[in-house]
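Please, does this match?
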Amino acid sequence: MHFDLKIYHPTKGVLLLRFSAADERDARRQAKGKGYTVLSVRQSYFSLRFRRAGGSFLVHLFGQELLALMDAGMGLIEALSMLARKARDPEVQQVLERVLNLIGEGQTFSNALASLPDKFPTLFVATVRASEHTGNLPEALRRYLAYYRQLNGVRDKIISASIYPTLLLAVGGMVILFLLTYVVPRFSRIYADIGEDRIPALSHLLMRWGQLVTEHAQGLLLGLVVLIAFFIYILTRPALRAAVQKTLWRLPRLGEQIKTYQLARFTRTVAMLIKGGVPLVSALDMTDELLQQPALRDGLQAAKRTIREGGALAETFRAQGLATEVGVRLLIVGERGGDLGETMERIASYYDEEIAREVEWFSRLFEPALMVFIGLLIGGIVILMYLPIFELASSIQ
């Protein structure tokens, strides 16, 4: 495998090098063996790089590179200047130069980041602002990077679990499409001279489909393209996406897991902000966008009003559905112990483990069931194609 490493050398500066290694750890070991300080590692899958919807500036990579340079002994201004000078992407260079100019005008680092809200999320800015009171920016960056990895851990597990079923569906769909559009029409020609009374009913329907494909191939192909384009257009409509989300939320088990996933992101974010010194109510104000379900967002607004009036956090979260029963019990313990940030971190980890168990259970059940279904479907088509031959052979005997 190939890995693209952004590295720092005391004499050469920041460089982008490609290493061939067995895994990421091996790539890092090779770079350190040559005297480089590794800033970031990215596996190179394709030579063609696709541009992300949010642009090419990635906050977590910026934080990782800045942390590595500061750990190497650089100051903030020197590290930012180094990253801006060596940036290959014009957008990244422009963002960093803008931050440097604002700092040069006398603004704090957090205010400079806050002036670019489309590049730096509120949480990252709040983390940096909290570090300005303690004077420990590297520790704040480590905390944000750990939060980023944990926040995306469950999502990565879901994506990994969906790869095999997706490939199975794609391959099975192509085989079925090949049988229905290429093999079945040719079998229908072979059976054209056989009387319909000698062909079983299901096989007859399959042969009629083959004749339809043979006679109207271009029209069917055009109709398929139009249908796919129509579905793509419909799925890009915000109103339809919102309707699909509401439907998924109403499903008994899936809706509960989606709610738990959103609560995990919400709770982990609040925990990080509290650990960074942000007051509880201010932390809740920064996390509105993490809750997409209307009921949860309305519950959060009501919870903030209750907490401002002096209400207990655990009972408020219970009443507004912002924590499960286990989460409420842990919150009660955290309120008594005074370590609310650590308690909410444990609650988020519990939610993540619960979702991971559900994903593993579903993948173990769904993958064999999907394989059996596709196998039966393909096998049924093949049997229906050959069934008239078996019937004809038995009649001759």
